[in-house]
Design brief:
Number of helices of chain B: 10
Order of helices and strands of chain A: HEEEHEEHHHEHEEEHH
Number of helices of chain A: 8
Largest sheet of chain A: 6 strands, mixed
Radius of gyration of chain B: 21 Å
Distance between the termini of chain B: 57 Å
Number of strands of chain A: 9
Strand content of chain A: 15-25%
Oligomer: heterodimer
Structural class of chain B: mainly alpha
Distance between the termini of chain A: 24 Å
CATH class of chain A: Alpha Beta
CATH architecture of chain A: 3-Layer(aba) Sandwich
Radius of gyration of chain A: 19 Å
């Protein structure tokens, strides 16, 4: 998966102009509760890629994801998902969405949750066993969700998003609360899905995970700060460590007068 | 076709959630029975009053229960993010609401059958209309309660708030439904405007007017019980020339001899 990285995003996007880009955003703005949660976001994402969406809490990651799946109100600007406006009925079979908090029915078993969503999405029930194995929940299929651990719940929620083989997966912090082994397995799964042509937009707080992505969208205060491959971003900040690179980029953006990003020392590693 | 399958899947899902919640089932089924039995002993020496109050009260239970159950259920769906996820799937809103309606209608039917059986067979309640109508009205009222619950949940952010809507949504139904004063005797504006909706609550008491030539007019015809009930309700007696259950116009619209006639009926009703 790391081998599939490209150096220039622009080239990659141009190569794929035959089919519509997975996401095309142009000056997307969202007002939420009197403040602008997104302040003019523009980017284009090619298909079959794992895109990391990173940034400090409250920078608009979730709002952007909600806009992509069509549940966010008051979205202005131009936003195209697989060549269509977000949320149209034709897209709903092609987009899988995992919310930040596990959005599953706690008073149902794992299997009942999946069975219901499979019926809603029109997915044959035969697929469920394979799906449960994919997220390593085969043994918990008949346990109630409220009896599961936080990490297991997150995986039930992920399995629900994976139902029906969507072409675009929007995953809001899918690996939070998972142990390193599982996290690695999931990132491998994401890589396999992307190799099969699925586009994944994955938000995360954990910088370690950024290196698994094909490209990164770094956000801050409702704007896209940088959109590049992990290696290019690291090179731009003059650092090999992605975490340092992010902090440098964020701090240089918040201090327009700062001349050198290298001078900035990491202050709060947990913030992003 | 898909909508029907989605509706049934939603019904099945809501019912399995209820099945996993024996406490709620117990509250829905047992509490009305206990209340009805208590009411019977409250009116130990006024069994006619028990008839008059008990029948309409039968339909208050499903109204209140379904309001609480459905408003909290949908609110939970919102706060846990499952609704947000469902909105990104091909599930139609109609199927979602239909699924909820069907599930709660089934629960309401179970409740109505249980409480009516207890009230009619064990506690000796007598109802003017056919017994099946009691069930039908209960189910209709349950769906009204569910509708009000779903409406209230749209205006509430938390479960705490939605319960505060209970007095606002349910008490008016109780006040205006003819539980305290038969609806025909309410002032014009109440009687006119609420004839269509709130009369659901009144069960057989406000059955549509029947022409006298269809035999007796009252739904129980010549049985002593029916007559007694009609007399208590202030309706015309058997043998009267006026058709039974005719809606009484507001006092200012009555011509003098009518005014006398209704005053007579009222005083005879009050005497009991």
């Amino acid at each position: 998966m790391i081998g599939r990285r490209v150096d220039s995003l622009a080239v990659q996007v141009e190569l794929e102009t035959a089919e519509p880009p997975a996401v095309a955003a142009e000056d997307v703005r969202v007002r939420r509760g009197g403040i602008e949660a997104l302040r003019g976001v523009s980017f284009t994402l090619g298909t079959g890629r794992v895109v990391g969406l990173l940034g400090p809490s409250g920078c608009g990651k979730t709002t952007l994801m909600r806009a992509l799946v069509g549940v966010q109100a008051r979205v202005s600007g131009r936003l195209g998902v697989l060549g269509k406006p977000p949320g149209v009925p034709a897209l709903r079979r092609q987009v899988g969405y995992m919310t930040q908090a596990p959005s599953v029915y706690a008073d149902l078993t794992v299997r009942q949750n999946l069975t219901y969503l499979a019926a809603v999405r029109g997915v044959p029930h035969a697929e469920l066993d394979g799906l449960l194995a994919k997220v390593d929940l085969g043994a918990e299929a008949h346990r109630r969700v409220d009896a599961l651990s936080g990490g297991q719940r997150a995986r039930v929620s992920l399995a629900c998003a994976l139902l029906g083989e969507p072409r675009l997966l929007v995953l809001d912090e899918p690996t939070v609360g998972l142990d390193p082994v599982l996290r690695k397995r999931l990132w491998n799964l994401f890589g396999e899905l992307a190799a099969g042509g699925v586009t994944l937009i994955v938000s995360s707080h954990v910088m370690d995970e950024a290196r698994h992505c094909d490209e990164l969208l770094l956000m801050r205060e409702g704007r896209v700060l940088a959109h590049d491959t992990p290696s290019a971003l690291a090179a731009r900040a003059g650092s090999h460590d992605l975490e340092d690179a992010f902090l440098a980029l964020i701090e240089s953006s918040s201090m327009p007068g700062a001349s050198s990003v290298e001078d900035e020392s990491p202050r709060d590693a947990g913030a992003c | 076709m898909l909508t029907i399958r989605q509706t049934l899947a939603t019904t099945r899902r809501v019912l399995s959630q209820l099945r996993h919640d024996p406490r709620t089932i117990a509250l829905v089924l047992v509490v009305p029975c206990v209340l009805m039995t208590t009411l019977r002993f409250v009116y130990q020496h006024k069994l006619r009053a028990f008839d008059a109050v008990g029948a309409p009260l039968l339909s208050v239970f499903p109204l209140a229960t379904m309001f609480v159950v459905s408003s909290v259920a949908l609110l939970r769906e919102r706060t846990t993010g499952t609704l947000e996820r469902l909105l990104t799937t091909p599930l139609s809103r109609l199927a979602l609401l239909g699924g909820y309606a069907l599930a709660f209608a089934l629960l309401a039917t179970l409740q109505a059958v249980l409480v009516s059986a207890l009230a009619l067979a064990v506690l000796g309640l007598s109802v003017a209309g056919p017994t099946a109508m009691v069930i039908v009205v209960c189910v209709a009222v349950a769906i009204l309660g569910m509708g009000l619950g779903l409406l209230a949940s749209a205006f509430a952010q938390t479960e705490f708030q939605v319960v505060q809507f209970f007095p606002a949504a349910i008490y008016p139904q109780m006040l205006l439904a003819g539980l305290l004063v038969p609806r025909q005797r309410m002032v014009g504006v109440l009687a006119r405007n609420l004839r269509r909706d709130a009369s659901l609550l009144c069960g057989g008491r406000h059955a549509p007017p029947r022409s006298p030539d269809r035999g007796g007019g009252g739904t129980v015809g010549g049985s002593g019980r029916g007559r007694g009930l009609r007399r208590r309700l202030g309706g015309p007696q058997r043998g009267d020339s006026a058709p039974p259950y005719r809606l009484i116009p507001p006092p200012h619209r009555l011509i003098p001899h009518q005014r006398e006639r209704f005053a007579e009926i009222r005083s005879s009703g009050r005497g009991r």
